[in-house]
Amino acid sequence: IGEALKLNRSLEKLKLGHNDIGPEGSIAIGEALKTNTSLQILNLLANNIGTEDGIAIGEALKTNTSLQILNLHGNNIGTGGGIAIGEALKTNTSLQILNLHGNNIGTG
């Protein structure tokens, strides 16, 4: 899916909730988000996404200009992933809704 997202220019909504895509899948999606310009809604609910994966998604959000809604509810991105996503929000101009509920981010 990550490779397809790099090339696809028409898909606007992708729901992958409860698919256990894990580290490999979420990092691939993060890489694709760096260049994808059509995806507006991405649901990665409960996919066993960890800290490194959260960092990869955060890096992608720094350059992505199309994603408006991102649901990461019920993963485990932890403090490191939360910090990376927070840093991305400083420069990201498209994201309007971000769900990080249940990610063990802490208070940092």
TrEMBL record:
Keyword Nucleotidyltransferase tagged: no
InterPro entries the UniProt entry points to: Leu-rich_rpt, LRR-containing_regulator, LRR_dom_sf
Domain of life: Eukaryota
Keywords for the protein's UniProt record, in alphabetical order: Repeat
Nucleotide-binding as UniProt keyword: no
PANTHER family attached to this UniProt entry: LEUCINE-RICH REPEAT-CONTAINING PROTEIN, LEUCINE-RICH REPEAT-CONTAINING PROTEIN 34
Annotated protein name in UniProt: Uncharacterized protein
Lineage of origin: Eukaryota, Sar, Stramenopiles, Bigyra, Labyrinthulomycetes
